[in-house]
């Protein structure tokens, strides 16, 4: 599968932050078990993927091993965004034996999680094939790993919604209550942040009309029934892109996409993932 255009990984500095945090909690005062290996031993290893998967997170995997052994050799047979069959050898490594066993768990944790996110995303993207819908992620990510998981979504063919609370405005029910109305909330948002995309979450067709009148950039249809989605698409008539959110699963997303909406956001891409089964087998040289 071909990755979407916005495929660039987070920069090396961000990956280093993720790696150092993970290794700090795993390593503590040192790897007590690695001392069982001869101090100068060299080793090689093969990494096998036991599941059908879309691979993501190779840069995090590499960084874990290179943190201990900058000279480690890592030969990938795949790249991020590639789909692999069960039993595929996806990587071969060689280097200092103690470094390989110490870095293994953290490296696999990153790769199995991010590949799971990419694989889940690819399943949702496949379910809307033949439509113009873009599958979006949400902010329902593992704390501290948002940029990594959102990168994995892109590896799976999905697209990122806002990265956080800082790069777009999503006006929801509580914001509307506090502001007094949809119109008042949008007006305040335009005044405070004129350069940001403004999206309003609506729960009825009446609120949809209010959002249209307010001149927002995007409208989120929250927990709409199928018939309501179709009516909303007809009513909006292409004036504002529509996003569907709520009750989205693999069984429903195809029907939702065929209503004619533009985006479907899916929290499951990053929070309902099942880790990909990976196995790293080492042999001393």
Overview features:
285 residues, alpha/beta, 10 helices, six-stranded parallel beta sheet, 19% strand
Structure description:
The structure is a single chain. This protein has 285 residues and is α/β, with parallel strands linked by helices. The protein contains ten helices and twelve strands. The strands form three sheets. The chain has a six-stranded parallel beta sheet. The chain has a four-stranded antiparallel beta sheet with strand order 3-5-1-12, covered by helices on one side. Helix 1 packs across helix 2, helix 1 packs across helix 3 and helix 2 packs antiparallel against helix 3. It is elongated, with a radius of gyration of 22 Å.
Question: What is this structure's SSE topology?
Answer:
Elements: H1 12-27, E1 42-49, E2 53-54, H2 58-68, E3 73-76, E4 83-84, E5 88-96, H3 97-127, E6 134-136, H4 146-155, E7 169-171, H5 173-179, H6 182-192, E8 198-202, H7 205-214, E9 218-222, H8 226-236, E10 242-245, H9 253-257, E11 263-265, H10 268-271, E12 278-284
Parallel strand pairs: 6-11, 7-8, 8-9, 9-10, 10-11
Antiparallel strand pairs: 1-5, 1-12, 2-4, 3-5
Helix pairs in contact: 1-2, 1-3, 2-3, 3-4, 5-6, 6-7, 7-8
